[in-house]
Amino acid sequence: MAENLQHSISESDGKGGAAAHETKVPPEELQKVKEIVDALTKAIKISKIYPSNNPIYQKFINELLKEKYDSYITEYGNLKLRLAQSKLIYNGAEVYDNPDRLENIALKLYADGIREITFHEGLDNSELLSFLDALNANLDPEKTDDDMVTLLWEKNLQHITYFVIEEAAAEGEGSAAEDLAKRAPLSEFVKEPAMDASKKHHLEAESGMPVTEEKPKQQPAPELPVYSVYTLTEDEIEQLKREKEAEENPAFTFKIIDILYEILYMERDFNAFSEVVDTLEKAIDLLISRADLVRAGRLLKNLHEISGAREKFSDEELNRVIRAIDRAGDAVRIRELGDMLNKNQAIDINALTSYLSLLNKNSAIPMLELLEIDNRNIRRIVCDVITGLVKDDIDLIGRKISDKRWYIVRNIAYVLGRVNNTKSIEHLKRALKYDEPRVRIEGIRSLASISGETAKDLILTALNDKDSQVRIHAVRSLASLNHKKAVEPLINYINQEAFKKADFTEKKEFFEAIGKLGANEIFPFLKGILTKRSWLFKRTSQDELRACAAFGLGKAGTNDALNLLQAVKEKPGSIVETARLKAISEIKKLQVKQ
Question: Is the whole model's pTM more than 0.90, yes or no?
């Protein structure tokens, strides 16, 4: 999962820290990196003009990957870029800086807490398009209000990783980007002067039409009725203002709440005690309706402190306070919270996290309804909080896996994986049978996270899924988990006639998986496919299989595989030749590491 690829570090590199230890980069290597970064920036601009399925855009992406990125990866390995405040740094050398702060990629990434980003071998067009889509959304404030970390988390990229500091805003270095996002409209600063003769002449010359200024017609003032007016004195007006401010001042309101909280420690009559708790419950409701999650969370925290002070309160009083905390997380209150969040999308995320974390376990099921809110940040927080609530009782949400809303079930599957408990497997088994493919994919990811033989065997069943993306995710997971038992089922699937009609991407995933899992044992099978020639009318289909066999041999990484790949000669530029050369390069790099 993308979250597994995201890492957090507790300290900032500081301003310009990425370039603090400069190293000498060979000119050829530095030029390749600059070309990749330049191509990425151009791709972002092109994507604003053409949709992702446009041939022009696709051609540009293919050239970026094949000609520039693959060339770099083959020679130097993964591409790691560090971020200064407005620059991209490669091994101490600056490779990007854009004076246009609104278009500066580095500035936006840096402001959102990202300090390093790495592009790994295996990056394909779909992931690159997803990454560009996230950058575009982040650069355009009209598209989303999510930060870059959230957007990348949602994209679940497998071959792009990044380091994030936990509290970017605390550094005070994100203010430049925030100022850009909060700029007031120009009309607030500029007043249109009366049109002078030169401006009028210029407009007429541009449009070829006479320009006239129409002045509003003067309307007679309406007659006002005569009332008997009582005039307040200045002292009376000031007194009314003070009273109004006192009633509306949140600090004043919370001072009263603090007093009620103190009364609970002194009141020994249970009925009076219960009445004070009633008032505090209503105060929570009021604060939620006003979107004041900071004070609502503080009040809830106070109630938790009382519930833990067993030596100071009777069991009856403690149970009353616990019921109040439970009530804050019941279905009615969570629904009211959801209504407030839908109206206040720019809510304080930290305050929301703190408030939700203070709710009791009974809120876990009602909290699932918050996943309908159209805000990725909020949904991510809700999932994290639910994970903590159900870690000791996964059946609490596991029984909701049959919900008809696929987006709710997908998040339930995600939470079951985060809990990382083998008890989740039985619920995830049902997720693999859900109608929506995205739910089944999330179920595979969670099973891979849990691991273990039972989880791996369950992933194996997804090889027969009707959706190609589900099958691809299953194959990738089996390969990453090094599940040797998957080799025979994978070969059986490859030998099916229907496999020949599969998309090349899927074929490649299957062959690379058996190459990685089978090593020497799979060599004869791959050799037979690579060296097999076919008649002209079957050549395209067979060449795809031969190319995939070459990729599989590259993943096997054995000497036999290397010798075979070097012995086979193919037409320059063909799909088989391209795969053969890449596989040879991969084996050689693997041998150097060993």
Answer: no
